[in-house]
Design brief:
Shape: globular
Helix content: 55-70%
Number of helices: 7
Strand content: under 5%
Radius of gyration: 14 Å
CATH architecture: Orthogonal Bundle
Distance between the termini: 21 Å
Number of domains: 1
Length: 138
């Protein structure tokens, strides 16, 4: 598995094998999470960070804000809105070696585009993207 974005972390459980390695995912997520925690002037526990790395959806406001920031830095959301085009652009860079995976990713992205809409609070969109992706896994 290989990626540079939150997309991969969120879709790991919803898709088949992809092209890059897990360590790259964790390295990028750690960098984004540290930047975001600093920008949001918050600290996350080791457990909260591990939850984000493993694709679990955040449960408290600080973690939601960090998740939203990571989603923004990854290009998955813009202006409190899910971005189908950016989602697919990230997916193509990450999963293009596997057409079956790309089909599943596109299905997930279309469902999320339809279900998410605009977020009400400043930190809700990251949570909504996470919940949508996990819902599609079921």
């Amino acid at each position: 598995m290989k990626s540079y974005s939150l997309l991969a972390a969120l879709l790991l459980a919803a898709t088949a094998e992809c092209c890059q390695n897990t360590e790259e995912i964790h390295t990028m997520l750690r960098a984004f999470s540290e930047e975001c925690a600093e920008e949001k002037e918050t600290e996350l526990s080791k457990g909260e960070l591990e939850d984000i790395f493993s694709g679990k959806c955040p449960t408290n406001e600080n973690a939601k804000c960090v998740m939203t920031c990571i989603a923004e830095k990854s290009g998955l959301v813009q202006g409190n809105q899910f971005s189908f085009d950016r989602f697919m652009e990230s997916a193509n860079k990450t999963f293009s070696c596997d057409q079956d995976t790309m089909k599943k990713v596109e299905e997930v992205a279309r469902e999320c585009e339809r279900d998410i809409g605009n977020a009400k609070g400043d930190c809700e969109i990251g949570l909504k993207v996470c919940e949508c992706v996990w819902k599609q896994k079921k």
